[in-house]
Write a structure and sequence with these properties.
Number of strands: 5
Strand content: 15-25%
CATH architecture: 3-Layer(aba) Sandwich
Shape: flat
Radius of gyration: 15 Å
Number of domains: 1
CATH class: Alpha Beta
Largest sheet: 3 strands, antiparallel
Strand order of the largest sheet: 1-4-5
């Protein structure tokens, strides 16, 4: 089974000086999703390492972006079936 994320908005972040997980791992995933026309945004944080837990507290743009997303319009595919994400009431 696979799940296609091309219609799911993703904003990935990775610290460029992360010593635990190389930034190239996130870049590989981002590139693969972009090749599939994925709805992905990637921000490499040049001055950050692995611990970016405070990112949401220091960057209000993340919340603005999240609020602009509309789950009712996103389609998730499992195998060959298509399932529409239920709209919130």
């Amino acid at each position: 089974m696979y799940i296609a994320f091309e219609n799911t908005p993703i904003w990935a972040f990775h610290g460029a000086i992360d010593k635990r997980i190389p930034v190239t791992k996130t870049e590989r995933i981002v590139n693969a999703l972009q090749k599939q026309n994925g709805n992905i945004k990637f921000t490499k944080l040049e001055d950050k390492g692995h611990m970016i837990y405070d990112l949401y507290e220091t960057n209000p743009e993340i919340f603005k972006w999240m609020l602009q997303q509309n789950a009712a319009n996103h389609v998730i595919r499992r195998n060959e079936e298509t399932h529409k994400t239920p709209a919130k009431k």
